[in-house]
């Protein structure tokens, strides 16, 4: 009996030690910092840095466009409760520029487009310089037209930029939550190594199609194209909020025939019928690119899956 009791006591002692160690591990890293991220790719990078510490909330979880979003009550409440808000910047999420000051004046606003060392593409450096013709923006507010010195806000589509943003995210989180600073730094280092591998992987994958021209719905891919040397031959519409003018469609048909384009790419939330006529007349293949991860489950892995999907879709269409 004494032997049996001794065994029982040993088992319970071991179980108690395990529970204590587990609880201690949780309390060592758990944070009550309330973090909000604007769009899916930003949320993914923040979630990677916060892994094992906390989970950021995703502000735009549906198919709403960050270019023209009106806050829902639930989204406003999310911002009101936030201690930190990570976003690209007013060039992409213009609705947040005024909303943060009014709704979340105490929250730390982290503009990732201002990350030190970030590479930016100016508007004049994009492939659509020749596309801003008179009449292309008919029916849209002038505010949607980028000034000459504006930069392309799709900064996350270059894994090298993602590395810069991860460093900035980790630094700002560590400043706000010092007890977990080492965990943020370790997570950032691990994420950066994975981002380097991702860049090398995609670079090898797209090498066979670098000289193959294609067209896209709107210019969201400049960073991806510049990083991996891809050949964007034109865009359907200079304005991401609306379709092309009749004049633009006529010019597009001419560009398709003269450039040798075989693939055109739309996006999940936008299926312009204009592609159909151009594709039918010129024997084009149509596929869908998802630059923001609308069709990927949010979380730390989204960024990696998003970029691999872009590479898979492009090479799949261009190699055929």
Report the top-level CATH class of the largest domain: Alpha Beta
Q: Helix fraction?
A: 40-55%
Tell me the strand percentage band: 5-15%
Q: If you compute it from the alpha carbons, what radius of gyration comes out, rounded to the nearest whole angstrom?
A: 24 Å
Structural class: alpha/beta
Which fold name is given in CATH as the topology of the largest domain? Answer: Rossmann fold
- What is the mean predicted local confidence, pLDDT? 81
Q: What is the end-to-end distance?
A: 76 Å
Summary tags:
10 helices, alpha/beta, single chain, 46% helix, Rossmann fold, 4-stranded parallel beta sheet, globular, 2 domains, disordered N terminus, 320 residues
Describe it for me?
- Helix 6 (181-206) packs parallel to helix 10 (302-318).
- Helices cover 46% and strands 9% of the residues.
- It has a four-stranded parallel beta sheet with strand order 2-1-3-4. The chain has a four-stranded parallel beta sheet with strand order 6-5-7-8, sandwiched between helices.
- The chain has two domains: 31-201, 3-Layer(aba) Sandwich (Rossmann fold), CATH 3.40.50.1980; 205-318, Nitrogenase molybdenum iron protein domain (Rossmann fold, 3-Layer(aba) Sandwich), CATH 3.40.50.
- Strand 3 (84-87), helix 4 and strand 4 form a beta-alpha-beta unit.
- The chain has 320 residues and is an alpha/beta fold.
- It has helices at 2-29, 40-49, 73-80, 94-103, 159-176, 181-206, 222-228, 246-259, 274-282, 302-318, and strands at residues 35-37, 57-58, 84-87, 108-111, 213-216, 231-235, 263-266, 285-288.
């Amino acid at each position: 009996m004494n032997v049996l009791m001794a065994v029982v006591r040993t088992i319970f002692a071991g179980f108690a030690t395990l529970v204590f160690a587990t609880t201690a591990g949780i309390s060592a890293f758990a944070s009550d910092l309330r973090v909000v991220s604007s769009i899916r790719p930003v949320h993914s990078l923040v979630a990677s840095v916060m892994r094992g510490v906390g989970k950021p909330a995703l502000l735009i979880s549906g198919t709403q466009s960050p270019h023209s979003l009106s806050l829902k009550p639930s989204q406003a409440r999310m911002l009101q409760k936030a201690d930190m808000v990570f976003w690209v910047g007013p060039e992409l999420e213009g609705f947040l520029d005024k909303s943060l000051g009014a709704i979340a004046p105490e929250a730390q606003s982290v503009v990732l487009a201002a990350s030190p060392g970030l590479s930016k593409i100016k508007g004049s450096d994009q492939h659509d310089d020749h596309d801003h013709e008179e009449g292309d923006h008919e029916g849209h507010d002038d505010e949607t037209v980028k000034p000459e010195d504006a930069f392309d806000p799709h900064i996350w589509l270059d894994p090298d930029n993602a590395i810069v943003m991860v460093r900035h995210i980790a630094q700002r989180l560590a400043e706000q939550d010092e007890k977990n600073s080492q965990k943020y730094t370790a997570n950032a280092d691990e994420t950066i190594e994975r981002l380097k591998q991702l860049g090398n992987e995609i670079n090898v994958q797209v090498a066979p199609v670098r000289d193959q021209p294609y067209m896209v719905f709107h210019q969201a891919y400049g960073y991806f194209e510049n990083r991996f040397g891809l050949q964007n031959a034109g865009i359907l519409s200079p304005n991401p909020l609306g379709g092309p003018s009749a004049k633009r469609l006529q010019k597009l048909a001419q560009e398709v025939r003269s450039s040798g384009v075989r693939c055109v790419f739309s996006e999940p939330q936008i299926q312009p019928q204009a592609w159909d006529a151009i594709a039918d007349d010129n024997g084009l293949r149509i596929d869908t690119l998802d630059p923001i991860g609308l069709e990927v489950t949010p979380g730390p892995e989204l960024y990696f899956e998003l970029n691999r999907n872009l590479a898979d879709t492009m090479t799949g269409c261009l190699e055929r």
